[in-house]
Design a protein that fits this description.
InterPro entries: PNMA_C (IPR048270)
Oligomer: single chain
Radius of gyration: 18 Å
Shape: globular
Pfam family, one: PNMA
Number of helices: 6
Protein name: Paraneoplastic antigen Ma-like C-terminal domain-containing protein
Length: 117
């Protein structure tokens, strides 16, 4: 009998983009065929550092509720409250000495998607 390989989940510590991590987590959970309860357990297990501290504010009976956990993480680490910072970065972004146009263009594109998403 053929069984598909399990895709390993990543860790989230709050130092990287929540949006990017959530996208990766959703792909991994889909590939592994997880239901929402398993997704919640895997998400809790993937949290480290300040991201794991979010769990202290969630009642014990809600630690298996995926929506509750995701909402708590979004409130603290989501990109939506950083829009003004990304717009300022975009306005002041200049090509650094020795930086290729491709690198500059990629960074400007990234900032645009964050600032105006």
């Amino acid at each position: 009998m053929f069984s598909r390989p399990t895709v390993k989940s990543l860790a989230f510590d709050g130092q990287t983009s929540w949006t990017v991590f959530k996208t990766q987590f959703d792909v991994v959970s889909s590939a592994n065929g997880w239901n929402n309860r398993v997704k919640a357990s895997q998400l809790v297990a993937s949290l480290r550092g300040s991201a794991a501290e979010v769990l202290q504010g969630i009642p014990c009976d809600k630690l298996t509720d995926l929506t509750t956990i995701e909402n708590a993480l979004e409130a603290l680490f989501g990109d939506s409250n950083l829009t003004h910072i990304y717009r300022t970065e975009l306005k002041t972004r200049r090509q650094e000495p020795g930086e290729s146009l491709q690198v500059l263009a990629a960074d400007v594109e990234r900032l645009m998607s964050l600032a105006y998403a």
